[in-house]
Write a structure and sequence with these properties.
With 134 residues, the protein is mostly beta strands. It has one domain. The protein has 1 helix and 15 strands; from the N terminus they run H-E-E-E-E-E-E-E-E-E-E-E-E-E-E-E. A 4-stranded antiparallel β-sheet has the order 1-15-3-13, with no helix packed on it. The two termini are 35 Å apart.
Length: 134
């Protein structure tokens, strides 16, 4: 019994040596244009504000800068790749066809050096920035 407590204590104590740092809140950001996660920080993508409204021919940006019927129009861009984010899957319909988009589950963590932008239709991405404290 004493040996199992000793083993458990060593496991808990040694886990501290494997940690890579603690996270400290820095700021909340709304990202639209491409930005890079700074060195010594991580970003937690919390949500996306879509700047689009449906039209008869697809989607139109509320800013008037986008008129697209493509998948990428409602995606953000992570490392230059269009990425749909949300909760699970959601059925959608267009031109009498029904299809399902698969979403990347939120929250989404981005390491230092990763790029993020609002995507084709300038969506706003809500991000919490953390400092990594060694």
């Amino acid at each position: 019994m004493k040996a199992s407590f000793l083993f458990f204590g060593l496991m808990v104590f040694s886990g501290g040596f494997l940690a890579q740092g603690n996270l400290q809140f820095n700021q909340v950001k709304l990202v639209t244009n491409q930005e890079t996660v700074p060195i010594g920080k991580v970003w937690k993508v919390e949500s996306v504000i879509y700047n689009i409204v449906p039209t008869a021919t697809g989607y139109q940006s509320t800013a008037g800068s986008c008129n697209s019927v493509c998948y990428e129009s409602t995606a953000i861009e992570v490392a230059g790749v269009p990425t749909k984010v949300g909760q699970g899957t959601q059925p959608a319909s267009y031109s009498n066809l029904v299809y399902t988009h698969t979403y990347t589950m939120l929250p989404l963590w981005l390491p230092a050096g990763a790029t993020l932008s609002g995507g084709t239709c300038l969506n706003k991405v809500s991000v919490i920035e953390f400092n990594i404290i060694p």
